[in-house]
């Protein structure tokens, strides 16, 4: 089947890379695994040789039909439960049956960041994630303060998860080849959340505001939110730029902003 540009499709075909990803996932028979964007089944079929059942979410109706037919005609593989839906609107928490999910997938580059944020809000029902993403995205996810890759995605990803970069994948592993390198990453949700589910919305607001003007100082980027005097009281230098603050310092700002707005 021909890749469709509107879905940002790049089909993985390299057997060595596929085997590396399956080895990284280490699927076990009792795992509840959900694959996002199975495409032509590069990971789907190897996974179904390892586990009795696999959930998969595929928006493309043609691919969904192809996968369903291919799996139903092969009795040597496990059962594929396929959802022809948009992963950006999918409620993953309904699949767990009190057992944490394992989420895998070669995520479309054009929706990867939005999809990550959607998945993070359901992290309490997820054991781990194994994703293939644009290499630049993975570098940003695990970036540290005062680095060029550090930003909103870094702070929010690390708020929810431990980020483990696994290996780089060159464009030739896909058809058609993308114009950039990819990378496989493992994300492990924090067993003890850093804050309540409600709090992540407040943190996201503060981080988004700060990085909306990342070349300006905090005094300017947070103007109207938290004053220079208030920053000083929190032991945060208002002359710093947003990329200089650690996750801990952003948590401090968010806690302060939450209390400030609640007391109004």
Automatic annotation (TrEMBL):
Domain Ribosomal RNA adenine methylase transferase N-terminal as annotated: residue spans: 17-191
Family matches, as SMART domains: rADc (SM00650)
GO cellular component terms attached to this protein's record: cytosol
Secretion signal, residue range per the UniProt entry: none
Highest taxon listed in the record's lineage: Bacteria
Alphabetic keyword roster: Cytoplasm, Methyltransferase, RNA-binding, rRNA processing, S-adenosyl-L-methionine, Transferase
Role noted for this protein: Specifically dimethylates two adjacent adenosines (A1518 and A1519) in the loop of a conserved hairpin near the 3'-end of 16S rRNA in the 30S particle. May play a critical role in biogenesis of 30S subunits.
HAMAP family xrefs: 16SrRNA_methyltr_A
Protein name, UniProt field: Ribosomal RNA small subunit methyltransferase A
Record organism: Candidatus Nitrosacidococcus tergens
Gene name for this UniProt entry: ksgA
């Amino acid at each position: 089947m021909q890749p469709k540009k509107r879905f940002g499709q790049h089909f993985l075909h390299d057997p060595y890379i596929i085997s590396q990803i399956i080895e990284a996932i280490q699927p076990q028979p009792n795992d509840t695994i959900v694959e996002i964007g199975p495409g032509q089944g590069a990971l789907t079929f190897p996974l179904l040789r390892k586990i009795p059942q696999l959930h998969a979410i595929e928006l493309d109706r043609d691919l969904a039909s192809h996968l369903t037919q291919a799996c139903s005609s092969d009795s040597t593989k496990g059962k594929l439960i396929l959802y022809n839906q948009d992963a950006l609107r999918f409620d993953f928490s309904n699949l767990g049956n009190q057992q944490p999910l394992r989420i895998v997938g070669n995520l479309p580059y054009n929706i990867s960041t939005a999809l990550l944020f959607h998945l993070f809000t359901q992290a309490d029902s997820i054991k781990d994630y194994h994703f293939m993403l644009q290499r630049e995205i993975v570098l940003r996810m695990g970036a540290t303060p005062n680095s060029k890759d550090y930003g909103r995605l870094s702070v929010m990803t690390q708020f929810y998860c431990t980020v483990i970069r696994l290996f780089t994948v060159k464009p030739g592993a896909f058809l058609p080849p993308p114009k950039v390198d990819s990378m496989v990453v493992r994300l492990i949700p924090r067993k003890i959340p850093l804050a309540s589910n409600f709090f992540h919305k407040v943190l996201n607001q503060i981080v988004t505001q700060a990085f909306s003007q990342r070349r300006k100082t905090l005094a300017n980027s947070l103007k109207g939110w938290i004053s220079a005097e208030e920053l000083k009281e929190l032991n945060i230098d208002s002359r710093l730029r947003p990329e200089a603050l650690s996750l801990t310092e952003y948590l401090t700002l968010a806690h302060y902003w939450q209390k400030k707005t609640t007391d109004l």
